[in-house]
Amino acid sequence: MIMMVMVVVEMVMVIVVIVVVVVMVLIMVLVMVMMAVMMVVNVMVMVVLIAMTVVVMVVMVVLIVVTVVVTLLVPVVGMIVVLVMVLIVVVVMLGIMVVMVVV
């Protein structure tokens, strides 16, 4: 019974991670498009946004790898990590959007 629950949790975890990754890619594309628009406005801003985007992408990859590894080891901890990951990503994305609006 416990094993069944574990398997279900694992499946949900994988799905959550995949969804998060897809959403991230979509947001990245959105950011890229915005940056293309910003390029016309200001090259400096574009450089900053590219730097932020790269940092976010690296962090995302690291978090995803860590999440997958942790998930295989401890499902519960894995879920917590995913939640934290999503929170971090949302905060970073909001930060980028705020910067874009302000600039």
TrEMBL record:
Keywords: Membrane, Transmembrane, Transmembrane helix
Spans through the membrane: 12-37, 43-73, 80-102
Superkingdom, taxonomy of origin: Eukaryota
Keyword Membrane: yes
Protein name from the UniProt record: Uncharacterized protein
Species in which this protein is naturally found: Dreissena polymorpha (Zebra mussel)
